[in-house]
Design a protein that fits this description.
Layout: H1 2-15, H2 20-41, H3 48-70, H4 73-93, H5 101-109, H6 111-119, H7 125-150
Helix pairs in contact: 1-2, 1-7, 2-5, 3-4
Length: 152
């Protein structure tokens, strides 16, 4: 399941570019970043303000990715703006909810962290569901990216 999820992520990254070397390099970098995300989460800011700033940066990067894939700048900007505004509003209302959020997100999104349960001999159904969701999500994005390229 871990291998299939990593292949799905690599396939999506490969569908974004025509250059095979660039796709391979970015794919390896993303996989290594995901592998190290649990260790890096120990160094990530656990303060509420640090989590909000990291989320805002993620929203901007997500907006740029949406703009690149869909070639629709206004959609990407509005999505990034709406998510940023909602996050800032929630931070103003209840800043305690953002304490330790960034390290928690990094731990929860790690593909390799869920694999350790299987290595230790535990059959974790939630990990299976997570891997299937990641596989389906990134293959869906790959198909959408290729369909977009086909019609342009």
């Amino acid at each position: 399941m871990l291998g299939a999820a990593l292949i799905a992520v690599g396939t999506f990254l490969s569908s974004l570019t025509d250059n095979q070397g660039l796709a391979a390099g970015v794919g390896i970098a993303v996989i290594l970043l995901n592998y190290c995300s649990v260790s890096l989460s120990e160094y990530a800011s656990a303060t509420a303000l640090g989590s909000v700033i990291a989320l805002l940066v993620i929203y901007v990067l997500m907006g740029l990715l949406i703009r690149y894939v869909t070639r629709n700048g206004s959609l990407a900007y509005w999505i990034a703006f709406a998510l940023s505004a909602a996050t800032v509003a929630l931070f103003v209302i209840n800043s305690q909810a953002f304490e330790g959020l960034l390290p928690n997100i990094m731990n929860q999104l790690s593909l390799f962290e869920r694999f350790t349960a299987f290595v230790n001999g535990i059959f974790d159904v939630s990990a299976i569901v997570y891997y299937l969701t990641v596989i389906a999500f990134f293959l869906f994005l790959s198909v959408q990216s290729l369909e977009k390229r086909r019609y342009h």
